[in-house]
């Protein structure tokens, strides 16, 4: 028996490949932009090659053409956010140490706003235009202050390390109740230290923990800058 199939029988409808909208081409900038979006909404730990491949509707292997590994990806995210650092004080009027402190405080605040990124910044090594602009700005202000080139070359590294470590420490403590209680316990221990066994602690008293975080941070930068200016460097 033969079954006659009508030519009018509808065929399964499949979207033609030609009718599908073309996906935007992958690029380093597009990958980094997606990484920043994921970090802002889900946190840095979710910024992985697999997660970004899902975000960009592609395979993880295709991302490695543009980004070597997750560490390089995190460094690229850091580089992108360094564009938020206020470098206006570099060319502004005023005392150079105060302007340098303002730049470093702005850098610290950018990291402080992204706690996980602050920790990553301790080992991440960005090398893009935003990072170079930050380093150039710090070196320009050290040069304006008469800091010898060799000391400035090493000093910029120390200044950024101090800023990064401060942001990482403070960002880890801000939402940690245990860390806050540890801080309160330390304040009490210092305040209650007996003069007989700890005379210098007792003499300084509340001043050991005085000042706002902003005041203490600016003082730290001033101290490091003054040390950089006054400490000769060994010949290499």
TrEMBL record:
Pfam families: TetR_C_1 (PF02909), TetR_N (PF00440)
Residue ranges of every copy of the HTH tetR-type domain listed in the record: 25-85
Top-level taxon of the source organism: Bacteria
Protein name (database record): TetR/AcrR family transcriptional regulator
DNA-binding region: 48-67
One GO term of the biological process aspect: negative regulation of DNA-templated transcription
Cross-referenced SUPFAM superfamilies: Homeodomain-like, Tetracyclin repressor-like, C-terminal domain
Composition skew (Polar residues), residue ranges: 1-10
Basic and acidic residues composition-biased segments: 12-25
